[in-house]
Amino acid sequence: xxxxxxxxxxxxxxxxxxxxxxxxxxxxxxxxxxxxxxxxxxxxxxxxxxxxxxxxxxxxxxxxxxxxxxxxxxxxxxxxxxxxxxxxxxxxxxxxxxxxxxxxxxxxxxxxxxxxxxxxxxxxxxxxxxxxxxxxxxxxxxxxxxxxxxxxxxxxxxxxxxxxxxxxxxxxxxxxxxxxxxxxxxxxxxxxxxxxxxxxxxxxxxxxxxxxxxxxxxxxxxxxxxxxxxxxxxxxxxxxxx
Length: 242
Prior knowledge:
- The protein is α/β, with parallel strands linked by helices.
- The chain is built from 9 helices and 11 strands.
- The protein has 2 domains: 3-101 and 212-239, NAD(P)-binding Rossmann-like Domain (Rossmann fold, 3-Layer(aba) Sandwich); 103-208, Dihydrodipicolinate Reductase, domain 2.
- The strands form 2 sheets. Strands 2-1-3-4-5-11 form a 6-stranded parallel sheet, sandwiched between helices. It has a 5-stranded mixed sheet with strand order 7-8-6-9-10.
């Protein structure tokens, strides 16, 4: 049985992963939270899952590399420096980094990229996301993942097309841009809506998370898949064979 070590074991995702690991024939090797020793956990696990904070990523990757243990990085809010650390680690161990462990969102991103590629530039793209009141980053990592997919479909980068602030008199919408709107409140697990608004018609692609368990199930599935992979950087699309 594959033993999963949970970085951030007392967080919402950590607890959810521990609760359902046995459903996949996996065991939990243990967990570490702030102030704990990730290296000891890494040495006792077949694969790690990291749902902590960006500030903890460097130490967690270092522990995984020293122990030679694959790691799924599900922490959001990462910057370029974090991605550089992941690239360096991936030269030594298998690393799967993702903004969402949802299998449905992973497939949705592929559909978004396809729609953006096939619809003309006169179809405006807007991404609306909603999460619980405790989420600390906006737009969500999942919304940005969908934005990246839309931009890729149009042969561009999200950095060039992203619009996140429309306060005040902003003027007419610029053609080709990808707009974002974030909602925070209550206990919303996560809703994402990608709107393609064309002349006289509108296409909406929607994913709604009904519970945190779906993210945990995707994380465990990703961990079990990653445990058998050689060193390299991977994504959730590869878990689904996309």
